[in-house]
């Protein structure tokens, strides 16, 4: 027993000894080696100043900076240290009263607590900065913080570039693992949001020692614990700022969109959405006022219609319908159809704009003359193809083609909130018309001419032209071609944009036939009067029916014919014939890109076109009823809510027909009217030229967004497109 007690006592002594050694080691480490807790203990005597890095710059294809960084200063405050402040002088300098002073101080405490610095007055003017610097000793706890803000030298591409704003509580909750703090700025939309991790850079911190009165005495520990701010990486895009400015200029006083793509790379050359806004209006102190106006504007200028607008493609779809029929062996290039101005095979006649004999004698003629009857028949042949036994299976095969062409799904462009538009599923027709055995191609007939429930975004239409230009493949549309000092992670991010999307096994011979037909459109067809100086090009006009007003004007094209370098899609809402309005916009964009200039005749044409006012009357009436000045006051919001507004899906009011009644289209016995020419320019210009970057753009273009209509059951669609 004595031996047992002796051993137990020895074990206890060993345990106590080990614990004692551990405690001594920890004390030595804390006192002599580690400064970790020393820094925390000295925190009250240390002023921590955040050094915000410069965000990365975004360049166009010619290395022109689409946006830049400029220096701005904020007045920040640590509430716990704001004692003995000369509030009278401070309020006089800032032009606020004491109630506003108290309100702001409370807001800082709520956002950042009493012991952390928060912004009291952001974006100081040079005059304010000078006054505050001179009197800062009167305001204990206050200091001036430097940061860079965005500046847009070309006043263009607001929807593409996006905007930057201070993070709020909702943003921090969603990105709590990413190291953001109150006072940080982040990209909220566009490329700024999509490439935020690359553009943002890394914050730096400087620590200063303070005396017992809070005055800075110098650098803490000779800067040993300071960290250097690391600037964000630059992005190099495929955009051409001059083509972008031209597109925006041509869309002035109109509602619509234009997209240009380089078929060889998938790089987006230009993406314009109208109405738009000057991106400089969302920087600095004017941002709040501008946001309020944009959100309340009935024209929805904040929407990027190029990736969010959904439109019936109309006759611009016809080349794709022909590709399907050729690939399925349903027709040959020599296949013709007797059209006498209407299509009557499904009972009620569907109008065609052409009556002359032989205008659809073969595929090339049908494309050049945009014969509705020809492509309605070709569509029916695809759906009722005996190889697929029934209409449902035939339709699913047709839908498979459309999805592979990039319709009815997101293409994956490097912008947030892309819309996939719509290629209807059989479930929709089953719901409307019952079991598939009760419906056939006549129930969805106008899909063959790009109507019915089919919709597409302008980006999808431009990509379809790249697909045809490349004879069977495309690259995922994108803006960013490369990243500065590209890492392996950066390269992996961009890999999908550098990979060829070979979506079908359709032989190139089929695409050559389609190209010839689209070339004929520009030689003797519906766009014969529109030329691109020095280049042969391929195109297709479109006039999409709109049950709520005038038809939409559409135009898709690519050039040069034999070595395509640019593919373009343009949509002008409520504007009529595709060749009249959308066509000239698209061809001027191609001329500018291919020739790097415009001829004097084209320059005059561009000036004339930019002054034409095609705004829907409903929008003009809204502006008469609502004085704009009433909407210039700041609107309370948080950035997360605003981002949601930007991300909302936009459906054009005419994207889906209001109803689908039985066909009651009246026969048109009149001959085809001559294509109208551009009207004379009005005397006054409502907007400054987008090609003059030093001038501010006044936002006056607006659009009405209507509720999505419903669709009745067991009826046929009478939507018909022209040209």
> Which value, in Å, is the CA radius of gyration?
32 Å
Main sheet: strands, sense, barrel = 5 strands, antiparallel
When the domains are counted, the total is 2
Strand order of the largest sheet: 12-11-20-19-18
Cα separation of the termini: 110 Å
Question: How much helical structure, as a percent, in the residues?
Answer: 25-40%
Oligomer: single chain
What is the CATH superfamily of the largest domain?
DD-peptidase/beta-lactamase superfamily
Helices, by number, come to: 24
* CATH class designation of the largest domain: Alpha Beta
CATH architecture of the largest domain: 3-Layer(aba) Sandwich
Low-confidence stretches at least 5 residues in length (pLDDT < 50)?
A: 629-723
| Beta strands, count | 20
General shape: elongated
Task: Please explain how this structure is put together.
- This protein folds into two domains: 48-201 and 225-237, Penicillin-binding protein 2a (Domain 2) (Alpha-Beta Complex); 241-647, 3-Layer(aba) Sandwich (Beta-lactamase), CATH 3.40.710.
- Mean pLDDT is 82; it is low at 629-723.
- The chain is α+β, with helices and mostly antiparallel strands and 723 residues long.
């Amino acid at each position: 027993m004595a031996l047992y007690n002796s051993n137990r006592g020895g074990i206890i002594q060993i345990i106590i000894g080990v614990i004692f050694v551990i405690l001594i080691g920890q004390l030595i480490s804390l006192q002599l080696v580690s400064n970790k807790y020393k820094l925390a203990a000295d925190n009250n005597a240390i002023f921590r100043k955040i050094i915000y890095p410069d965000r990365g710059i975004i360049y166009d294809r010619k290395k022109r900076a689409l946006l830049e960084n400029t220096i701005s200063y904020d007045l920040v405050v640590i509430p716990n240290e704001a004692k003995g402040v000369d509030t009278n002088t401070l309020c006089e300098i800032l032009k606020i009263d004491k109630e506003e002073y108290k309100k702001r101080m409370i807001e800082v405490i709520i956002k950042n607590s009493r012991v952390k610095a928060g912004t009291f007055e952001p974006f100081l003017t040079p005059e304010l900065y000078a006054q505050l610097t001179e009197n800062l000793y009167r305001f204990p706890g206050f200091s001036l913080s430097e940061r860079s803000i965005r500046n847009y030298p070309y006043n263009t591409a607001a929807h593409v570039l996006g905007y930057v704003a201070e993070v709020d509580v909702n943003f921090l909750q969603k990105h709590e693992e990413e190291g953001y703090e109150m006072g940080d700025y982040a990209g909220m939309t566009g490329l700024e949001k999509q490439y935020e991790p690359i553009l943002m850079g890394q914050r730096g911190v400087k620590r200063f020692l303070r005396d017992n009165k809070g005055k800075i005495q110098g650098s803490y520990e000779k800067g040993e614990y300071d960290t250097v701010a690391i600037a964000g990486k630059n992005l190099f895009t495929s955009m051409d700022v001059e083509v972008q400015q031209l597109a925006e200029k041509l869309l002035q006083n109109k509602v619509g969109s234009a997209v240009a793509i380089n078929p060889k790379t998938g790089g987006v050359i230009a993406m314009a959405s109208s109405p738009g806004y000057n991106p400089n209006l969302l920087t600095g102190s004017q941002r709040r006022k501008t946001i309020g106006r944009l959100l309340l504007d009935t024209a929805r200028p904040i929407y990027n219609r190029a990736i969010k607008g959904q439109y019936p493609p109309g006759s611009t779809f016809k080349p794709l319908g022909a590709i399907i029929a050729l690939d399925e062996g349903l027709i040959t290039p020599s296949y013709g159809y007797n059209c006498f101005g209407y299509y009557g095979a499904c009972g009620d006649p569907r109008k065609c704009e052409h009556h002359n004999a032989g205008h659809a004698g073969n595929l090339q003629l049908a494309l050049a003359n945009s014969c509705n009857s020809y492509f309605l028949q070709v569509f029916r042949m695809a759906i009722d193809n005996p190889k697929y036994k029934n209409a449902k299976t035939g339709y699913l095969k047709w839908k498979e083609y459309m999805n592979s062409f990039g319709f009815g799904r997101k293409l994956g462009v490097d912008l947030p909130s892309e819309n996939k538009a719509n290629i209807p599923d059989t479930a929709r027709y089953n719901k409307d018309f019952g079991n598939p055995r009760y419906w056939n191609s006549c129930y969805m007939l106008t899909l063959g001419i790009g109507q019915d429930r089919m919709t597409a975004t302008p980006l999808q239409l431009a990509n379809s032209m790249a697909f045809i230009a490349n004879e069977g493949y495309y690259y995922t549309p994108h803006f960013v071609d490369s990243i500065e000092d590209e890492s392996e992670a950066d390269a992996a991010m961009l890999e999908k944009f550098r990979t060829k999307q070979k979506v079908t096994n359709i032989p190139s011979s089929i695409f050559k036939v389609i190209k010839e037909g689209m070339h004929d459109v520009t030689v003797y067809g519906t766009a014969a009067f529109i030329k691109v100086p020095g280049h042969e090009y391929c195109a297709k006009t479109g006039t999409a029916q709109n049950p709520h007003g005038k038809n939409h004007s559409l135009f898709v094209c690519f050039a040069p014919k034999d070595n395509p370098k640019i593919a373009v899609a343009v949509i002008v809402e409520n504007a009529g014939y595709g060749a009249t309005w959308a066509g000239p916009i698209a061809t001027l964009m191609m001329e500018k890109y291919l020739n790097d200039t415009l001829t004097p005749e084209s320059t005059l044409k561009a000036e004339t076109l930019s002054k034409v006012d095609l705004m829907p009357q409903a929008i003009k009436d809204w502006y008469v009823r609502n004085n704009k000045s009433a909407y210039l006051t700041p609107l309370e919001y948080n950035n997360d809510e605003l981002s949601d507004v930007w991300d909302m899906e936009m459906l054009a009011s005419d994207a889906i027909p209001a109803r689908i009644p039985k066909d009651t289209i009246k026969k048109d016995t009149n001959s085809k009217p001559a294509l109208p020419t551009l009207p004379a320019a009005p005397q006054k210009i409502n907007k400054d030229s987008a090609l003059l970057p030093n001038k501010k753009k006044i936002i006056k273009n607006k659009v009405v967004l209507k509720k999505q209509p419903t669709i009745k059951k067991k009826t046929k669609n009478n939507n018909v497109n022209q040209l």
